[in-house]
Specification:
Shape: rod-shaped
Structural class: mainly alpha
Largest sheet: 2 strands, antiparallel
Helix content: 40-55%
Bound molecules: zinc ion
Strand content: 5-15%
Number of helices: 1
Number of domains: 2
Length: 73
């Protein structure tokens, strides 16, 4: 039997209201997480990870370019 679909009052996302779901019945599981700072930390971490990843890519590109230049000369 399908679970009833509810709309989260916080983010507006639809979610399945499963029996035993923690938190409020009118909030999706993500928005029911006990600490709101939790998602903030996650977002922040994501941002840092993304930034370091692009830095890594830039570094790699630079290294490859250096190698190519060295090969040319
Ligand atoms: Zn939500």
């Amino acid at each position: 039997m399908p679970f009833p679909i509810k709309t989260c009052v916080v983010c507006g996302e639809e979610f399945e209201l499963r029996p035993g779901k923690p938190g409020f019945a009118n909030r999706c599981p993500r928005c029911s997480e006990p600490e709101e700072t939790d998602s903030d930390t996650e977002q922040h971490k994501d941002e840092i990870e993304r930034r370091s990843e692009s830095e890594m890519n830039a570094e790699r590109r630079r290294t490859i370019r250096d190698m190519l230049y060295r090969k040319d000369s």
